[in-house]
Amino acid sequence: MSSPIEPSDRAASIEYAIRDVVVPAIELEKQGHEIIRLNIGDPLAYQGLQTPEHMISAFKKALDSQDNGYGPSYGIPTLRREIASTEKGKGWNCSEDDVYVTHGVTEALQIIFAAFLELGDTVLAPGPHYPPYMAYPQMYGAKTVEYRLDPNDGWKIDFKDIRSKMDDSVKLLVLINPNNPTGNVPTSSEIDSFIEIARDYPKCTIISDEIYDGLDMSGNFVSLASRSDEVPVITLNGVSKVYFAPGWRLGYMAWHDPKNVLQGVRDGVERLLRSRLCASTPAQHGFLAGLVGDKGWLSEYREVIRDRLEYSLSRIESIDGIECQAPSGAFYLFVRITDPNLSIDDKKFVLDLLHEKHVLLVHGSGFSPEMGKGHFRMVCLPEIELLSEAFDRIEDFINGK
Ligand SMILES: Cc1ncc(COP(=O)(O)O)c(C=O)c1O
Asked: Which atom of ligand 1 sits closest to the CA of residue 246?
């Protein structure tokens, strides 16, 4: 009898809470139940937030003109130039050579981790955070440690906690701004304090994940790279959130290296980029159209999202057993379960709600076992009618416990 072939420990230990909870949801759908999905940050899953038409036309035009070949490994020059100009507009001296186009921020992260991390290294990331910051570093023998975001004060950065966790093993210090899942947007003076800490550790590079930058509702957003004159910063961004095209799988990293300390690791990144060939060529044309085109549509989209966020917050306020710190950006709410009987196991809360009321959320511990427990994350992208139905069900569920 042949024995089963086991997966590597590396693969077996990967978790991605946002999609892991979809497995039981699909089972229920197969049985004929309709599930309200509030788990995934994909605007296209809901009404009224479609990819802008001019971006789609540019993508289609590239397809029609047979621009379907392999492109340059670092991205097509016109797009790199336009990204550089966009980043320059945010206040730092980005050149087209500083920009590398990837299959989304997610691929950029894989490449950065592969190029920076050795056995025993640390990635210091916000707690709670977007799951790949925890899932990938361990593939390189590194570990992710979380610094605290304050759950009682708008999930602001706890600088004392960062300081206490910094040492020379920290190769990458991460800021997600606006934050997923909490929606926190740091002020420029908070950004300066963040950079100030990294300045004391010459082996540390900052990753600033700014994929939700255009969805800042507070007016506080500043590019982290624009505030750093010494510490190296890699800015991440792409089409998934602010350009409403997550399925295109397109993003970029832009390197700001004021003291020229990253040449070696940059060579490593370029080797990795060449070895995986290139990002999607026609999609790059679509992104380019988004960058150069008028952005008036984005203010309208932002208002739609703001209405949905505000509606959701008002519903949460009226439900006994849950509460939420108002976000300053992005399109999530990270909701605290205040009833101790329900908060003790947030994954059970989410799975019971799914089975009993057919609403799909993500358990907070999936964003941080320590700092996210007792919470759930919900996406506020659906139209208000659907949100209203979802909250009716959540309220019924909690009242029934
Ligand atoms: C903070 C953050 N970074 C990156 C991503 C994914 O980016 P991409 O679709 O470009 O891989 C997400 C998706 O939810 C996110 O929340």
From this structure: 9
